[in-house]
Automatic annotation (TrEMBL):
Keywords: Membrane, Transmembrane, Transmembrane helix. GO terms for cellular component: endoplasmic reticulum membrane. This is Transmembrane protein 41 homolog. Pfam families: VTT_dom. It comes from the Eukaryota. It is found in: Membrane. It comes from Bicyclus anynana (Squinting bush brown butterfly). The keyword DNA-binding does not apply.
Length: 271
């Protein structure tokens, strides 16, 4: 017996020395994540530069207007330039709006509202609506991935209270996340850039996030695209809003909550 005990004692240290195989690996450090995001950003700028080079030769007075629209006047001037070349270079113009919109959404850069209005001016209504919804979903999903790399620490540092509040709300609505994301996209309670950056931080899965974004941005995009059809009559983005448009958005927001309420009623009934 003493021999067996001595053998087991001599083997014990060998078992303890084996490193665990199920220990999760640490993520990228902040500095490495920052470098990676910077590389992605610079690569995106290079891609936009190549796209610009592929555009047809512009008149000298037009070149200064081919830039990101930071206000409504920029959108008007850009619309005039693109409208002139749209018929002959339709797919180039469409691809340009598509990539620039995704670029703005990916890096949470303001200006996508002006591209939504511009899309309504340049393209048929339903094409513009699908374009804006797809760009919003793709761009928001890419921003989601970048936030996974770098945004977690930034959000927790600069927006701790708001992130904590939304985290509680996500936990509360974890069985209805799709409807919850749709509701947030339709309503102005949280800015879209904050939703994009915070979603992975507080544990929102990508699938309901992307699908909820695609569906949820449709109603406000409907308003912006419709306003774009009268782009040159607008004096500010607030002109796009009316009591009719506000009523439509309110109805869509309430509709997004109907499945949640029905599910709760059914659960209470069968319990």
């Amino acid at each position: 017996m003493s021999t067996i005990n001595r053998r087991s004692e001599s083997r014990a240290p060998l078992v303890q020395d084996i490193p665990p195989t199920n220990v999760p690996k640490a993520g990228l450090s902040t500095s490495k994540a920052l470098i990676l995001v910077a590389i992605i950003f610079i690569s995106s700028l290079i891609a936009l530069g190549l796209l610009y080079k592929q555009f047809p030769k512009l008149e000298e007075h037009e070149e200064k207007h081919l830039k990101l629209p930071w206000d409504l006047e920029d959108a008007k001037q850009l619309g005039l330039v693109l409208d002139r070349y749209k018929d002959k270079y339709f797919y180039e113009v469409l691809l340009g709006v598509f990539l620039v919109y995704i670029f703005l959404q990916t890096f949470a850069i303001p200006g996508s509202i002006f591209l939504s209005i511009l899309s309504g001016f340049l393209f048929p209504f339903y094409l513009a609506l699908i374009l804006v919804c797809c760009c919003s979903a793709i761009g928001a999903s890419l921003c989601f991935f970048l936030s996974n790399l770098l945004g977690k620490k930034l959000v927790k540092r600069f927006f701790p209270e708001r992130a904590a509040q939304w985290s509680k709300a996500v936990t509360k609505h974890k069985n209805n996340l799709l409807n919850y994301i749709i509701f947030l996209r339709v309503t102005p309670f949280l800015p879209n850039w904050f939703i994009n950056m915070s979603a992975p931080v507080i544990g929102v899965p990508l699938t309901p996030f992307a699908l909820g974004t695609f569906i949820g941005v449709a109603p406000p995009s409907f308003v912006a695209i419709q306003a774009g059809q009268t782009l040159h009559q607008l004096t500010s983005t607030s002109d796009a809003w009316s009591w009719t448009s506000i009523t439509i958005l309110t109805i869509f927001a309430l509709i997004s909550l109907v499945p949640v309420l029905l599910k709760q009623r059914l659960r209470e009934k069968f319990e």
